[in-house]
Amino acid sequence: MPPARHRHNHNSLQIPCGKPGCQRWFKSKAGRTRHHHSAHPDLPPSVRHNRGTPQPDPPPPRTPTPVPSANEAELQNLSPPPHSRAPSRSLSPEGRVEFHGHGDRLYRNYHPKLDGRACNELGEFLAPGMPPPLYTERPFRDWAPYRDRVEFELAEFLFKRNQMSASQIDTLLDLWAATLLGHGKQPPFANHHDLYKVIDSTPLGSVPWKSFSVTYNGEKPDHNVPPWMNDSFEVWYRDPHEVIKNMLGNADYKDEMDYAPFHEFSSEGDEQRWQDFMSGSWAWSQADEIAKDPDTHGATFVPIVLGSDKTTVSVGTGNNEYYPLYISLGNVRNNVRRAHRDAVSITAFLAIPKTTKEHANDSSFRKFRRQLFHSSLAKILGTFKPWMTKPEIVQFGDSYHRRVIYGLGPYIADYEEQVLLSCIVRGWCAKCLSPRNELDINSLCRCKEHTETLLEQATLQELWSEYGIVGDLVPFTNDFPRADIHELLSPDILHQLIKGTFKDHLVDWVERYLKHVHSAAEASRILDDIDRRIATVAPCAGLRRFPQGRGFKQWTGDDSKALMKVYLPAIEGYVPTDVVQAFRAFLDFCYLVRRDVITEHILIQIQDALERFHHHRTIFNTLGIVLTFSLPRQHSMVHYLFLIRLFGAPNGLCSSITEAKHIKAVKEPWRRSSRFKALGQMLLTNQRLDKLSAARADFRRRRMLDGTCLSEANVLDNLPDGQNEDVRDEVQLEDNNEDIEVDNGPTSVLAHVELAKTPQYKRARTVNELAVELLIPQLPVLLGHFLFAQLHPDDERDPDEIPPNMLPHFNGRIWVFNSASSRFFAPSDLSGIKGMRREHIRACPRWRNDFPRYDCIFTNTNPELDGMAGMTIARVICFFSFKYDYTLYPCAIVRWFDTVGDAPDEDTGMWMVRPAFHANHTPNIAVIHIDAIYRAAHLIPIYGRHPVPLDIKYYHSYDTFRAFYVNKYADHHAFEIAF
């Protein structure tokens, strides 16, 4: 007899979350309650920790931060004193004081001339407070070109989310049609052709792809003409002007966009802060230049952010290289540009000239290939040129019109791309004039005017050998006003620091050092032990493991980022102290420049880390490991202070953004193609993806996507028969507007920990049973100490001094949990759009049915002190909860660690801890409230000089070693709190 079958519950997903800005719906009230506890904790002030991003004490009276090149003089022209450009710190375009952040009072000076004022369709400025015009006259339930919501969400699911092939779409629709046979109904689409036709007919987001061909028109030899001189090279693109206008009009960005350049200051000491792009000096100086024309006053400056990089989609078949060009806005904030919210769009596929091996190294071919790149960019971006000096009226996502002035902004590129963009010789710096064999000496910045002067007075050979300039190339920026390619090259954390300086330089130098001072056999043994050290690192939330050490052949950016977090303690003991300190200084530099907000005090720390790195790295030269430090990617570190002041925090302009875009815009469309003439299919796929994104933004703007498909269908299905569409629309509007608010900023809760939702019913159910299970016979007494502290919070006596007869006794039911979750504010890490991050802390005897896992934690012991001075490390043995006098107590049994010394280790910069013991040599164990937990901590063993035994596994780490480093490099948030 076949098993009983369940019918689909049409009433599922009917309960909305109800919290401001949350669009989640649930099948039951219990599900909604669990969601509220997890995502929207309603916390009393007593559990709101204040350790999110500690602000150091204000520095002494400000002095100009030294930069190891002549950049400071240039900086003074771009970054004026705080009060020299605006009449008052607290004035915005509307004359209001800006408040935002987690309790921080911040002031902004907005540009007094290009202040982004709203206007009407004719360009006439509106009075402050006037409402915007109606966005659209389309009816509320107009789903065109789709029939209804089901069609749209099905099309989006099949094409964008699931990426289902055409044949599989046909199969699914045939099965769907079979279930409806005899009911007089049809599936939403007839077949994949019908689906694609409907998507293509979407009027929004329609920026068609176009192409142009380029051929060589120079002199050709009389005989043996190279094939590339007769070939035609095709460039596919779509109008970037229209792409940018679509971004400006996207309602999703209306609360995540800056309409005017500004300078931001803290409330104490007028300390300047840099975060998003428009807070930098470059946008302000550009606005100064534009404002020289009175007709531009009141306009919105829109910087065009570009990025390009070749990418490989396949190793073994066909034409496996593509050359995408990406475009974005400088006005959207860094968190939006990093969050894959369509703020970075592909706008062109550039040509990649190929030729025979015989002519590949020919100078004329190399010149043609490079000039083709610049000429293509100049033509593609030419549609912006009329509106770089004359304002264009554009409607923005907040429904207001504004007068827009465009300008070429920063260019995201790795070093090879920077060489091509700046028309310099490989091995030279694209930002300054330092000689290629002495890159770190002080020198002037490159600039357009200086290059043009040299072109007039020097020969091509002199330009090449003495200045590193390829004089017979014309950069694309020469065709645009106010554009200097040397100034526009942005910092690139991924390729310059992580993959360049760390992976290609420092890690390689350590291996070369070991082979230099040891025999080949001994060096191999040491490298094997370093790999074992890396492999035995204990697991932690968000930390990647290396089961075989660093012995993998193909490195990715993620590999390098993960190895940076655990590499320093692994080499200690095998390399000189200066090498360890060089790694520490470099890691400090990386983590400081990666911060979401950078202040003047942090700039001083960055400069100090850079100087320490330059000092300690000389050990590699002294030992003969490295002959020169004139390495362009490593040299780029000296320009970071200048570029931070210029463009804001570097994490908003890193090439990791375009690398991630490669997957969605190039690699996935290529995999969906037939591989035959794949580019045309990839263009069509990208166009359809843009149309679906634009349609979703429009439907969301008109509040047509609130709730779920099923919840909306139930609302309409339950209306009385005979009601017309207008009444049905009114019912839907009224239902969706209930308890809806806009969440305009991050939550004020900086850290909150709560237990898992499901207890472990097969574990102990009383305190005595738990004491036997955990082999902690004194657990009932420890619980008594905990209850006494909870019931008498003002009693400052040591727990051991309290008489046993005064301790509360509990022998009721307990609930044991295997994990807890911590939510905290960590905008510098990969986190939500509001900067919140969630991680799980594990305490379970069999993690994934394999091995025990008991994580370590930061606990708040003195909230008045910052960093490790106010925190203690502990290891969680068990999570449990119980009720006492009708009060629920969520708790953790922890084993304390003692801090070694009163300062971090001088070499590694990390605090050292060791397991704590009582005077009778028993482990120091306690019961604490989970409100005392801040977040997970990661400890790395202090390995010393002894090899790691072969039988030690990573889950033995905390039980085997006697002393540990508190790994402040586990993530950027840990770096900010574990100082």
Any descriptors?
globular; Plavaka; about 1000 residues; C2H2-type domain-containing protein; Znf_C2H2_type
Layout of strands and helices, then pairs:
Blueprint: E1 15-16, E2 25-26, H1 29-39, H2 71-78, E3 106-110, E4 118-119, H3 149-161, H4 166-180, H5 192-200, E5 209-215, E6 232-238, H6 240-248, E7 262-266, E8 272-274, H7 281-290, E9 300-308, E10 311-312, E11 321-322, E12 324-329, H8 334-338, E13 344-349, H9 363-380, E14 392-395, E15 401-412, H10 415-422, H11 448-457, H12 460-467, H13 485-488, H14 493-517, H15 520-535, H16 557-564, H17 567-571, H18 577-593, E16 598-599, H19 600-616, H20 618-622, H21 632-635, H22 640-647, H23 656-672, H24 678-701, H25 709-717, H26 725-736, E17 751-755, H27 767-774, H28 779-791, E18 814-817, E19 819-825, E20 836-847, E21 851-854, E22 856-860, E23 871-884, E24 887-900, E25 912-915, E26 925-929, E27 933-937, E28 939-941, H29 957-960, E29 964-966, H30 972-977
Parallel strand pairs: 9-15
Antiparallel strand pairs: 1-2, 3-7, 4-15, 5-6, 6-13, 7-8, 8-16, 9-12, 10-11, 12-13, 14-15, 17-19, 18-23, 19-20, 20-21, 22-23, 22-27, 23-24, 24-25, 24-26, 25-29, 28-29
Helix pairs in contact: 14-15, 14-16, 14-18, 18-19, 23-24
